[in-house]
Design brief:
The structure is a homodimer.
Chain A (H helix, E strand, L loop, with lengths): L1 H16 L7 H17 L1 H13 L7 H16 L4 E14 L4 E6 L2 E5 L1 E3 L11 E8 L2 H12 L3 E4 L11 H12 L1 H7 L4 E5 L24 E5 L1 H13 L4 E5 L2 E16 L4 E11 L9 H21 L5 E8 L7 H12 L3 E7 L7 E7 L2 H8 L13 E3 L7 H7 L3 E6 L4 H4 L12 H21 L2
Parallel strand pairs in A: 5-6, 6-7, 7-8, 11-12, 11-13, 13-16, 14-15
Antiparallel strand pairs in A: 1-10, 2-3, 2-9, 4-8, 5-9, 10-12, 14-16
Helix pairs in contact in A: 2-9, 2-14, 3-9, 5-7, 9-14, 10-12
């Protein structure tokens, strides 16, 4: 019986330990060429230069966004993708106004602080609002202060990034309430304006913007972010003189929703043209930057991934679709509309993959799908250099593909990228092409192409 | 029997699939604090600022090197390490001279090329050598040209980095012969000087230096590296006019070997004080840079690792030893002497860990030891955030700990760091403190401390 057990054990052990497939040299060679072509030719990087420098800012509803839509369409048409088309999306349309200022006086001298209105802020009067400042580090503190402590004042949310986290994005999560919900909470107790320390890990004075909310039934007050150094300076000033009067001048205007578009390019599948593998990023950016990392990179990662298939003359079995989503930053209308259309048109998506975590160096992929699928794909790590994609982890995807995932159950991946420096440039004027490294960015393109190839060849 | 097989199968399967140990929450907490303290307090980064800015260049035998020895000793004494001492090492002593120039004339106009003598070059006459240039891409091409094609000429090695590799260090390996062996090969056929395209992945004009060799019985000729853009310009010029006369002026001087030191600091082991866990980097740098990445980072990673133990009040079981090796760049005398002394003094090293791959973001550890050890330590990955240390791979270590490893069999680790940008600054004037990111660097310090802790606690 001992021998019998051994005989049974051996195959079971092999099967149970790993769901391995034989090493496929053709796959390895294709992937090596994906990386080589991306790094050697830098085509995505050159696209990113054009998008960043020739078009630049492209907030939803702006002229830049409209230009970016046409640019993406023309690029993919120029590459000879099998099908390139626009998908209509109505987007919110807010524009920053002409004045933005924050200052106090010290010994008769005007001390200027660096400020940027949150995306969506209403305007103060032209002369600004001038009032005492009350500094808090949480929404709860505003509740505790109540109307007595807040009415007629400017609320200053000064919660700083915690640098102790390995994943500095955790700090972004912890401080995000200041920008997103700060104006509502302050206005509930009668504040005349609200400001916040930029959600930034840097130690400079570039203020940061991003989406914010108002609430029906609560006054809309102007809301803006201070640069980190300006925040520190203001905290010190208030500590020295709690009666400090601050002036905040912010301007922004809401327009009716505007017509814009998701841009879609396809390489048709040779065996199952109705099965779609989606790769995407978002085309819109904040108005103060070139949106090079956020998310020009994701767009050119996606176009570039399809382009790498073309370069090798690989005919995918399933249809590859690159999607430039519109309006991730302040509405997610593009992602929502895309899911709506996909359901209406009975489209079958095998998987959706998003890159919206910058152009820095890739580390892995997050995955939201079944545990069985997650276990299966671990075996694919053998085709990746460990210094590019070193893991497939549970959870993750992307904001734009989230609606499709939630409404249709389509499994989704998100490209995980080293985030150590991201929150120094995120949503600031520093998010420009020069902050992108060609090799780091191209590793993202090749990683996207490689994952698409593996899914197309072996299924999920 | 079926049931019996099942009973036997279950434990065997568990044991066979992974050599797992129970998750040790204390270990996890300690490691979390290592990372938190490093990122939050940035003490290693501040040390690196002092080493880079107050001392700067520290080529073996220089005043800078001597200052760095004292600095390291004082820092570790200041931290109250249990024992801090110097280990004498005789090092080669070469100094760059006063003139360095490379030019040709075009239409009567002097065209300057950016050049840097290789470390160890002899001088040309003050007025330089002026001769026709012969361009090659390999040592073999020089052999083919022979004396007829080379005598009296300047040999120009112009092999470029291949950008297609994911690990750009591969290109450094492929082009290294130009700097290391180029002068010997050229002189064998009577060349009057030799120059080479810098071993660089960048597209700028900062020339690169590094060690080179001469050979007994072969003339020593001056040998220097051109900036990448200068190399490209010279290639074009030669193509247009093969009779182009180039002038090379280089200067450098050899002095007698100098007395220098490895610097060693220890925290004594509470249980096995005679067992040593070594962490180290090299203190010397090239003369044209601050040696911030190469290898100031490795030094402060190592001191910092011990410091992180101190901060938590952790008493290691084994003795932790931080070693700042001298003379990695042009002789490896420090590493060689260290091994010699270790053998002479019957020291018992459990393991040696080196950081000499820059201050960029860590990716994993390379390991040279037994396969059983490598399998065992895979289990430790569960204590690392996947965006810091994501692998333990076979092979690797460090130049300085190599002699100890080879002569005593001590297992060795090398900290693997993302190398995408390293060969843009390596051995150039761009290797300065400003090129180091605090969070990336501190993740290295904490990774070193964590590995030391795991080895100290669980053994190898």
């Amino acid at each position: 019986m001992k021998n019998l057990i051994k005989l049974i054990l051996i195959p079971i052990l092999i099967v149970s330990c790993e769901t391995t497939t034989p090493y496929d040299q053709e796959t390895a060679d294709v992937i090596t060429r994906f990386y080589g072509d991306a790094l050697g030719e830098r085509e995505s990087y050159n696209l990113l230069r054009d998008l960043s420098k020739d078009i630049g800012q492209r907030l939803s509803g702006s002229e830049g966004a409209a230009k970016a839509v046409l640019w993406s369409k023309e690029i993919m048409e120029g590459y000879g993708f099998d099908s390139v088309f626009l998908q209509e999306v109505m987007v919110p349309h807010w524009e920053r106004g002409t004045y933005e200022e924050c200052f106090y006086y010290e010994g008769g001298k005007k001390i200027n602080l660096s400020i940027l209105g949150a995306g969506g802020t209403v305007s103060t009067p032209f002369e600004g609002v001038t009032a005492e400042v009350v500094e808090v580090k949480s929404l709860e503190e505003v509740d505790v202060l109540g109307r007595e402590g807040v009415e007629g004042k400017i609320v200053f949310y000064s919660k700083a990034f915690n640098q102790r986290y390995i994943n500095i994005g955790t700090s972004y999560g912890e401080t995000g309430f200041q920008r997103r919900l700060g104006a509502i909470k302050a206005a509930e107790y009668g504040a005349v304006a609200s400001i916040f320390r930029s959600l930034s890990s840097s130690n400079d004075d570039y203020p940061h913007t991003g989406s914010m909310s108002y609430k029906e039934g609560v006054d809309s007050i102007a809301h803006g972010g201070l640069g980190v150094l300006s925040s520190i300076k203001l905290s010190e000033k208030i500590k020295a003189d709690p009666k400090t009067k601050l002036t905040v001048r912010l301007s922004g205007k809401w327009f009716p929703d505007a017509l814009s578009h998701n841009v879609i390019g396809e390489i048709k599948g040779s065996e199952n043209p109705d099965n779609i593998i989606l790769v995407g990023g978002h085309l819109d950016s904040w108005d103060v930057s070139e949106g090079a990392h956020d998310d020009g990179a994701g767009c050119v990662h996606s176009i570039g991934a399809l382009r790498l298939f073309q370069k090798q003359g690989i005919k995918p079995k399933n249809t590859l679709r690159a999607v430039m989503f519109m309006n991730e930053e302040n509405g997610l209308r593009g992602g929502t509309q895309y899911a709506e259309n996909a359901i209406k048109n009975n489209e079958k998506h095998i998987v959706a993959i998003e890159s919206d975590a910058s152009a820095y160096i890739p580390r892995g992929f997050g995955f939201s799908g079944s545990d069985e699928q997650l276990e299966k794909i671990q075996d694919w790590l053998k085709y990746f250099d460990k210094n590019t994609i070193s893991y497939f982890s549970k959870g993750g995807g992307g904001a734009d593909i989230g609606p499709l995932h939630r409404r249709t159950g389509t499994p989704m991946f998100g490209l995980s990228i080293d985030g150590q420096k991201y929150f120094e440039i995120h949503h600031t004027a520093k998010d420009v092409f020069e902050a992108v490294h060609p090799r780091e960015m191209e590793l993202g393109t090749a990683s996207m192409a490689s994952l698409v190839y593996l899914i197309d060849k072996y299924g999920l």
